[in-house]
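call fold(seq) -> C-alpha cells
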Amino acid sequence: MDDDTNSVDDSETSDQTGRTDTGPTTVRHNWQPSDRPSVMVVKAVAAATDRRTTELPPLQKTLDADALDILLNGQSSSVTVSFRYADTAVSVSENGSIEVHVDGDPREEDNE
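ret:
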C-alpha cells in the first residue's frame, strides 16, 4: 500500500507531491501538535504550488487564522476544516494532516 503522507519533526516540514504538468494534484503534509495549524497550512500550500510563503495572500483574508488554531488545538481528533485558499482546496485535520488539492498551475492563473 502506498501512502504519500510524510511525518515531520518540529523543526522542518516535509511534503510529498505527485505534481505533474497536467491535471489536479493532491499534496499531503503533516504538522505536529506544537505547530500552529495556520502557519503549517501556508507552508503546505506554498510547497504544493511551488511558491514562496510570501507570494501567497495572507491566510487571514480567507479565514480567521487564530480561530483555526484554537479549533485544531488537540482537544478532539474528529475536527476537520476545509476551505479554499490561494487557488487550492485545503483540508486540515486535528490529527495533524493537511491535504492541498491543486487544480492547475496557480502562476498561470495569476497571469490571466
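Residues 1-22, 106-112 have pLDDT under 50 and may be disordered.
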